[in-house]
């Protein structure tokens, strides 16, 4: 079955960096686009970044453009999110996502807290 497992979250000071990773299994990873979403307390889940199956296309939410970078390693079935210049408003649970067989699959998420 499809499994997505996020890691790399934690507490970081404003201006700091974190790198999130998502390990995928149960599907042909290099055939599917991947996404990172986030959900802050009391807010709806929002799309943060997208990467196509071959990594040719990447897109970002305006709020993270220029600070976050999504990448993937199709040999290792992983997708990553490098987050730089973090702000308190980036505090959220971050989720890895893919659309496979017409269904959305989600990991359990990893918490990122940006605070001094």
Give a structural overview.
- This protein is mostly beta strands and 116 residues long.
- 0% of the residues lie in helices and 53% in strands.
- It has strands spanning 3-7, 10-12, 18-25, 34-39, 46-51, 58-60, 68-73, 78-83, 92-100, 103-106, 110-114.
- The strands form two sheets. Strands 2, 4, 5, 6, 9, 10 and 11 form a seven-stranded mixed β-sheet that branches.
- The radius of gyration is 13 Å and the shape is globular.
- The protein starts with a strand and ends with a strand.
Please outline the helices and strands.
Blueprint: E1 3-7, E2 10-12, E3 18-25, E4 34-39, E5 46-51, E6 58-60, E7 68-73, E8 78-83, E9 92-100, E10 103-106, E11 110-114
Parallel strand pairs: 2-11
Antiparallel strand pairs: 1-3, 3-8, 4-5, 4-9, 5-6, 7-8, 9-10, 9-11
Helices and strands: which structural class? Answer: mainly beta
State the helical fraction.
under 10%
* Amount of beta strand: over 45%
Spans with pLDDT under 50 lasting ≥5 residues?
A: none
So what's the overall shape?
A: globular
Q: Count of helices?
A: 0
Averaging pLDDT over every residue, what do you get? 97
Tell me the series of helices and strands, N- to C-terminal: EEEEEEEEEEE
* Main sheet attributes: strand count, strand direction, barrel closure: 7 strands, mixed
- Measured between the Cα atoms of the first and last residue, the distance is 40 Å
């Amino acid at each position: 079955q499809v499994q997505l497992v996020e890691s790399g979250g934690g507490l970081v000071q404003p201006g700091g960096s974190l790198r999130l990773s998502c390990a995928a299994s149960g599907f042909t990873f290099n055939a599917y686009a991947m996404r990172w979403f986030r959900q802050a307390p009391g807010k709806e889940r929002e799309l943060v970044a997208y990467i196509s199956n071959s990594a040719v296309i990447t897109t970002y939410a305006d709020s993270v453009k220029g600070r976050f970078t999504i990448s993937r390693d199709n040999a290792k079935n992983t997708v990553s999110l490098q987050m730089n210049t973090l702000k308190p408003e980036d505090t959220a649970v971050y989720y890895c996502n893919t659309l496979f067989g017409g269904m959305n699959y989600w990991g359990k998420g990893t918490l990122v807290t940006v605070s001094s």
